[in-house]
Amino acid sequence: MDKPYFHFSKAQNNTFQLQNRRYLGNKYKLLGFIEDIVAEKCNGIKSFCDIFAGTGVVGERFNKPEIKIISNDFLFTNYVCLKAFLGTSSPIQNVTDKIDILNSLKTAQDNYFSKYFGNTYFSLENARKIGAIRGEIERIAETEEEKNILICSLIYAVDKVANTVGHYDAFRKDLDMLQPVKLLAPNIDHLNNGNNDIYKEDANILIRKIVCDVLYIDPPYNSRQYSDAYHLLENLAEWKKPNVEGVAKKMDRSHIKSSYCLKNATQAFEDLIKNANCKHILLSYNNTGDSKDGRSNARINDNDILRILKNKGEVEIFERDYKAFTAGKSNGDGNAERIFYCNVTK
Known about the structure:
Layout: E1 15-16, H1 31-41, E2 47-50, H2 57-61, E3 68-72, H3 76-86, H4 95-103, H5 112-117, H6 124-140, H7 144-161, E4 185-186, E5 197-199, H8 203-206, E6 212-217, H9 226-229, H10 231-238, H11 265-274, E7 278-284, H12 302-310, E8 313-321, E9 336-344
Parallel strand pairs: 1-4, 2-3, 2-6, 3-5, 6-7
Antiparallel strand pairs: 7-9, 8-9
Helix pairs in contact: 3-7, 6-7, 11-12
């Protein structure tokens, strides 16, 4: 493959791009590193699977008409945005008009969202409006595609006015995020999306159903569940209005816990690799080191990673120093972002 390989278009006014969101472990700043490895090792690819997609920026980097992107995430919050950005293959009429309608909503009434999340994660005024907007989306969205775009627009807007450090494990004591919530339109490149498949499945189940040239794997590294960090956005996106508990107002998350954060992470990873039908595997797995908070320590050790990948083919390790966006509880000094590359031969 010739380099430079891809580029991002600049966002237009009143629009946002896929990477315009704070997210733990976000790979946006490492896209060039990932791209270089793919260009060097994976010639002539026709399909790329991002099986723990998160925000979806890695799949988007390789999104071209001639490359099928398979993008998967277990959280509904991420799924609707993946569907919007990578699964919408033609322009949706009137969506900007509907965003204008949502932005113009005015309410002084409390609702489910303001009752639980006002004056904590958000100003009361913003919480009331967020709840009103989410309810209105249910009423005005005419298709599933339109609904995905409007929910995605709300999720990105909410992130800009949240009284947090970028995730929802807790809110900041000083409520100083007072700017009004404002929805923008996603800047979707429809022409690249015709062949893409978007999933919301357990990666270990999906791997048995798909075939791809490149399998990119970016699982959780430690015991910190993404469902804990993004419970509020998941609650807002699903809009089932569940009971919430504790100071952090978390809903029941037992249905969205990842095995990769648990003691059986190594077995889950071994099962994933064993059942992968692909030509190349790229695994992002941080050297998180030993932290004072044991929850931050990597769940799968290097010896197991190498043993499992070598059972599939020839392995190389690429490494780059990198300061990640973390939960802020470990010092993170000297962390290296590593990609294990496996040329599948078995």
